[in-house]
Amino acid sequence: MRQKKLMLLGGLRYLLPVIEAAHKLGIYVITVDYIPTNIAHQYSDEYHNVSIVDKDAVLKLAQELHIDGIMSFAVDPGVMTAAYVQEQMHLPAFGPYDSVCILQNKDRFRQFLTQNGFKVPKAKGYDSVEEAMNEVAWMPWPCIIKPTDSAGSKGVTRVDTLDQLRPALEWAMENSISGRIIVEEFIEKEGCSSDTDCFSVEGKLKFVSFSAQRFDTDAPNPYTPSAYSWPSTFTKAQEQELTSEIQRLLTLLQMQTSIYNVETRVGTNGVPYIMEVSPRGGGNRLAEMLRFATGIDLIGNAVRGAVGLPVDDVEQLPYNGCWAEIILHTEQSGTFRELRIEKEAYQESVVQTDLWVKRGDHVEGFNGANDAIGTLVMRFNSQQDLEQALATQQDWLKIVLA
């Protein structure tokens, strides 16, 4: 039987466990992007220098290579391209291409949610800064300004006053691939927001998770997640409502078999909101964290689904303890010297340290997800111990710069 071929769009380190999973299944892996030095290309079987947002160029390459499946794991810009190639080549698909485009475009997604009776923040998309500036009368304060098509918190700003609006719009436009931005009502959250992964098989949610997403308010970009923990701060009733609404969304869009990165939050008004749903694994090793916490291998099953192999061992299991992932970062630029954990009890809670820099490397202040320098995986016996550790990070977790 011919060896199956999987095309992965992008080359970030988050693709490494995907490549490993594919190789364990005997699948030939092709990575594609326009940055030959990206780390994933060192581990794939074949690399091609093609922009992942050029869907016709990727399609042409995929046809030439006779691939069996395509994914854009943890790489938001390639998701629509992957769906386009799936549809054009009749490959195993996340769902209809147009449905994926709705999920991937922030203003189309908000419109779809509104039209179908979901609870949704007020929002409107714009093609230019001036167009947005001419419509300030409707804007709720505070609001969030974003590109409609970027990930990793790039170009995102909270705006509280009119004088902050234009610079925020310009920054969002600068970070938009398509040249389109969105102004959105800022939903003040109750507890922590959630950013984590889910999985559907033939359109049915088989695995749902909710996390507690945390932020470093002292970082240059305070809207870049700095830690995650499981379980979430939501109530059981709120999680059940969100699960039901996510399933309703997937059904309306006729989605099929896929991993999803799902962002949700509960407002101070007690209302649960679906903020984003993307048919890809999340960055920041979220699926790996869920494997630590539950034993469920979402990555391996995403690979199997992408090339048409059976997906039959995805199920809802409880968390084995309380888990946290700290995104290692610095608040200022400098030269990395060392990582220190200065409390023995927390040293014992560390399950894995994944450090991406070495002594003498230059590191940047935490402006976005790409400025992370590693992750710390930790397990605690109680939620109280977890909360205490995360609340006192600055006392025991030291990233020393020269």
Notes on the protein architecture:
- The structure is a single chain.
- The protein has helices at 16-24, 55-65, 79-89, 97-104, 106-115, 129-133, 165-174, 236-252, 286-294, 298-306, 344-349, 383-391, 393-396, and strands at 5-9, 28-33, 46-49, 69-71, 123-126, 143-147, 157-159, 181-185, 194-201, 204-207, 212-215, 225-230, 258-266, 272-278, 322-328, 334-341, 350-355, 362-363, 374-380, 397-401.
- It is of the alpha+beta class and 402 residues long.
- The protein folds into three domains: 5-91, Rossmann fold (3-Layer(aba) Sandwich), CATH 3.40.50.20; 122-185, Dna Ligase, domain 1, CATH 3.30.1490.20; 194-401, ATP-grasp fold, B domain (D-amino Acid Aminotransferase, Chain A, domain 1, 2-Layer Sandwich).
- It is globular and about 55 Å long.
- The model has no long low-confidence stretch (mean pLDDT 96).
Give me some keywords for this one:
402 residues; D-amino Acid Aminotransferase, Chain A, domain 1; 20 strands; 13 helices; globular; five-stranded antiparallel beta sheet; Rossmann fold; four-stranded parallel beta sheet; alpha+beta; Dna Ligase, domain 1
Write the layout of secondary structure elements.
Layout: E1 5-9, H1 16-24, E2 28-33, E3 46-49, H2 55-65, E4 69-71, H3 79-89, H4 97-104, H5 106-115, E5 123-126, H6 129-133, E6 143-147, E7 157-159, H7 165-174, E8 181-185, E9 194-201, E10 204-207, E11 212-215, E12 225-230, H8 236-252, E13 258-266, E14 272-278, H9 286-294, H10 298-306, E15 322-328, E16 334-341, H11 344-349, E17 350-355, E18 362-363, E19 374-380, H12 383-391, H13 393-396, E20 397-401
Parallel strand pairs: 1-2, 1-4, 2-3
Antiparallel strand pairs: 5-8, 6-7, 6-8, 9-10, 9-13, 11-12, 12-15, 13-14, 15-19, 16-18, 16-20, 17-19
Helix pairs in contact: 1-10, 2-3, 3-4, 4-5
